[in-house]
Design a protein that fits this description.
Largest sheet: 6 strands, mixed
Strand content: 15-25%
Distance between the termini: 47 Å
Order of helices and strands: HEEHEHEEEHEHEHH
Radius of gyration: 18 Å
Shape: globular
Number of strands: 8
Structural class: alpha/beta
CATH architecture: 3-Layer(aba) Sandwich
CATH topology: Rossmann fold
Number of helices: 7
Number of domains: 1
Strand order of the largest sheet: 5-4-3-6-7-8
């Protein structure tokens, strides 16, 4: 039986996550259009595959927890202490569940209304009190639409939202959009950092990195209200 590799140090945690997503098949290249913001992207990131590897999921949650704890411990805090964790379905819910278990905190999620009840307000699953500070958790951030909608639904219920944690920021406008409503985004990886590492490790084919970076840096891409 092959021995498991020694887990990387905390300083290498982000690159470990990039390598792990690559080895799981969570980074693909082609032409992808997903959700409301990702259109004709040359790269697809599927962080949901982490749920198939409990050891990798636990290590990933440790990275998120360490990032948050460091932000809360700083003299000028970059993360506000929180009472509740809210997962953004679907991709963020398994991460939020694992993080809630690690930190021993309550979990919430916003269930959108059924198609037949589009005029109804989203329903919040879980037990909470107005005034509690809530951390948002998602797997990916692109334009930030899902994070914004979740934050608004929670705020409308009286919860306080100041921080959101994600695994990968695709750098397509989520950070400034969330900042505009007073929410700080805390990614473990940005798409550029992840792809630059994977290229330096020899994983990418010629041209993959250049095409992806051109996509990330492209300016003037139109955004709808909820991208």
């Amino acid at each position: 039986m092959t021995a498991r590799p020694t887990p990387p140090s905390d300083a290498q945690g982000r690159l470990w996550l990039a390598e792990t997503l690559w080895r799981l098949g969570g980074i693909q290249f082609g032409d992808f259009s997903l959700g409301r913001t990702v259109r004709n992207s040359p790269v697809y990131v599927n962080a949901k595959l982490l749920i198939s590897r409990p050891d990798a999921l636990k290590r990933t949650i440790a990275l998120i927890a360490e990032e948050l704890e460091l932000g809360m411990a700083m003299r000028n805090r970059t993360v506000e202490p929180f009472d509740v964790i809210a997962g953004v379905p679907i991709g963020g819910l398994h991460l939020a569940t694992a993080l809630a278990l690690r930190l021993d905190l309550p979990l919430l999620y916003v269930r959108p209304p059924r198609v037949a009840d589009e005029v109804a307000a989203p329903h919040i699953e879980g037990i909470y009190r107005p005034g509690q500070r809530t951390l948002l958790v998602d797997d990916l951030a692109a334009g930030g639409g899902s994070l914004v909608e979740t934050a608004l639904a929670l705020r409308n219920a009286g919860l306080m939202i100041s921080d959101a944690a994600v695994l990968v920021d695709r750098e397509q406008g989520a950070t400034p959009r969330l900042e505009g409503m007073g929410v700080r985004l805390h990614p473990i990886l940005t798409l550029e950092v992840m792809l630059t590492y994977l290229d330096s490790a020899g994983h990418l084919a010629d041209g993959d990195l250049d095409r992806a970076l051109a996509y990330i840096h492209r300016e003037g891409e139109p955004r709808s209200e909820f991208d």
